Amino acid sequence: MEEQSKERLLLNNFTAMSTGRKRSALSYIPGLTNNAVLKLIIFSATLYIMLALTWAVIMLVYRGLPTYDQYFVPNIALPALSGIKSHWWTLFTYGWFYNMPGFWEMVSNMLWLYCFGSVVQMLIGAKQVIPMYLYCMFIGGLFYLLSQVLPGELGKTPPVIGLFGPRAGLIGLAAAAFALTPSYRFYLTETFSIPIAVVAGVFAVLMIIGSGFYLPVIFMLLGGGLTGFGYVRLLRSGYRPGEWMYTLTGKIEGMVTPAEDAAWQKHNRKRSEILDKIYEPKNGISQKRIDDILDKINQKGYNSLSAEEKDTLMRAGKE
Question: Which of these CATH numbers, 1.10.3720.10, 3.30.1330.30, 1.20.1540.10, 3.40.190.10, describes 31-255?
Answer without folding.
Answer: 1.20.1540.10
